[in-house]
Design a protein that fits this description.
Blueprint (H helix, E strand, L loop, with lengths): L48 H10 L4 E2 L17 H10 L3 H5 L31 E4 L3 H14 L2 E5 L14 E5 L6 E4 L2 E2 L9 E2 L2 E5 L4 H9 L3 E2 L10 H7 L6 H4 L6 E7 L5 E4 L5 H7 L9 E8 L1 E2 L3 E11 L5 H10 L1 H6 L3 E2 L2 E7 L8 E12 L5 H17 L4 E9 L2 H8 L8 E10 H5 L2 H11 L4 E6 L3 H4 L17 E11 L4 H21 L17 H6 L3 H11 L16 E3 L5 E3 L1
Parallel strand pairs: 2-4, 3-4
Antiparallel strand pairs: 1-2, 5-8, 6-7, 8-12, 9-13, 10-11, 10-12, 14-17, 14-18, 15-17, 16-17, 16-20, 19-21, 20-21, 22-23
Length: 594
Amino acid sequence: MRILSLAVLPLVGSALASSSTRPPLGYHRTNKTAPACRAVPGGKDWPSTDLWAALNKTVDGRLLQPAPPGAVCHPTQPTYSSAACTAVQANWTDEFFHSGNPVSVEWNNWTNDTCLPDASLPCSGEGYPVYVVNATTPQHVQAAVRFAHTNNVRLIVKNSGHDYVGRSSAPYSLSIWVHYMKNATLHPTSFSPTNCKNVTIPGAALTAGAGTQMLDAYALTHTINHTVIGGNGRTVALGGFITGAGHSILAPQYGLATDSVLEMEVVTPGGDILTLNECQNTDLFWAMRGGGGSTFGVLTSVTMTLIPSPEIMGMTFWIGTGADNTQAFDMLAWVVSQFPDLADAGISGYPIVFNTVKNFIDGSDTFIKGIIGKLIVPNTSNATLLEGKMHDIFSHVNATWPKMFGHYNTTYYPDFQAWYAENYDPSPTGHENLMSSRLLDRPALTNDLDALKLALAKFSAAGQATVYIVSGPAVHAAKPRGGGNSVLPVWRRTYVHATATIVYPSNNVSISDAAKTFTGFFSAAMKDLAPNTGAYMNEASKYETDWQTTFWGDNYHRLLDIKRKVDPDDVFWCTPCVGSERWAEEADGSLCRV
């Protein structure tokens, strides 16, 4: 989920804290005969041209060797074209451009700035995959997995490239691009899981290919007046979203997206095509619902329960004050402390704290601090609840802190699709982007407002921070089929998913290092506030220190055991991902055992 309402802000301040750039090393090489590193182009183990040609035949001619999209702007590159460069530059901030390209991702730093559409910068393409299988069937995925395993080639999976922790691109790799796996089937009244004797799950469901994006899923389910529990970004694709847990503005009322999963089809690291549900392959079914993408296999399709599309009472609001008001964060801490009560009352939304930003309210040259956001109450056409809660908040702010100003208004939407059409995330892409996040429970939000004040001030130091109300009663009480799922257990008591994002100039090692350090500062600030919670692994810092506990908590040991059983040779590797401790990227991009 990216920022909804404010312009992306540059990196500010100085490097304040340090964070690890490599996961803790808990596992060491045990198979002395296995290659120490994955094969690289030009190396003696790299597959021959004939082997690549054979793979191309197996996948029906869908093996690609694409140039980096920015190469068209570099006169030294074979794909150089002045006209094409103009088009690429014009579209570089468009999420659909990156989603529709076989190797491009939405944030430049995950390809190491190796070929941006700027002729004044270097272009080597070394941050991108060497080959791509444009998979449209499970058999295409199966062939790519088996090829990579047999030939010791690094394997990655790209869906849309909407990936905040950099799993969708890697040097010297074969990429499985599942973007066009969009086949979808609606089950309007019920769904019967495969090989589950006498099991029929009432209610509508959707079976969708892993490449189905939120824009597609919402439009399709709307045709039967239902909706998926999904994200707000249009290019968020079901594969990575579901496997990472999947928060939603509908989650406080209906549960996490992963909680709605009834069945999955996956290609395992051994190259088998399996169906996972409550009756078969139950360990892997548990692991794939929250254990993370690109780890236990490739999701090729998923079946999810649908909910009747609710009418929505929506609200936009803001509260602001001059940036020099020393009571600004006292006010902000108190407002954010009200969020658990809002969620318990049926309210969810996407608030954003802003810290010393240009005055976007009146367009003047002044600077302000405050909070802005969107809230909803599903299943009502009555604004009384939203307006009553916000009236109480405004009244307390006005009575307690002078020199505050604000506004709110409500809008009725006849169904979720109508709300989404006006309120989807429009944030630009094509820049350097690092994130830190933390899940906040009621104690973190209400027990010590001075601690919350300090944490919010630090966490928003780059200009803004989200405090999304995307968990609540339905997440806390969820009972996923098949005996539960592997999402971080802290979700079952979380109310707020807080994120801080740093955007910084490209192709500058010093600034890049400072940005990584700053994410460590953000993470530490929120850990001080909520030491016993964790983070949503799809939207977090790649450089978290105790990432196993931060992303999976007590589930990590079971997840690691399943990983070792289904993928003993580490065919799938990403970081920070379950079981990644046995490998690390070297300075030259090679992936080697540790």
